[in-house]
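Intended use. Records like the one below are meant for learning the mapping from a protein sequence to its folded structure. Do not use them to infer anything beyond what is encoded.
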Amino acid sequence: CTWKGQVTCFIVGTNSMEPLWNVDLWTPIYATPFHHHHSPSPDTTNDGSSSDRSSHHLIVCGADGSIRSLDILHDGGELWKTETDSRPIFTPCCKISTRPTPSAQPTTLLAFGSHDGNVRCINPSNGAITSTTDVGAPIVAQPIYDRLNDQIIVVTTPGAIITVDRSEATTADEGVSPTSRHHMQLNGEVFCNPLVVSTENDAGEDRRNPEIGHRGILIGCRDSHLYKLSF
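Structure written out for the chain above:
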């Protein structure tokens, strides 16, 4: 992705790299695109064969506040587009996958922050915005999902550490902002993405390493410090 709005997909081999498609979205792109795969009911083509079109989405956030889903496997065609007031969007998307319960099916959302101080959650299958939370300051760093505590962790550009209730972000009614809590303030600005230090296995079970002692996140700050925060 480029500042001119060009998105190019390459086929990478052992000794070669060839372009598969190139599209122009007509807006600068600062955020890293996100690959989302889902398994919809197979589409049927005119000849009766099944098609995997739209099962692989490339989610691209533009500086104009638009969010697009492109067909990554074929020609980069637009699958859906959502317009927001988030101008510009700098953060990559964060995947939020909920676990199935006796009363609810698992869901997948994408969360992203923007320069307008809002954290938005969207449905990656159709682009529908499920919630908007105002954290009161610009966001450049990628939000992260704390699956063990079921919350979204947001680091604002001025250095505030804020959590957003994931269950409310998933089920909030239109116009209702999920609950956010301010936990601490770092001594400088934050522009880089936090890194999760986790001892969770793939099943989401927390197997704590005695040498680490706890889970947490690493955050680089403009005050020349690297912080490790436990949660």
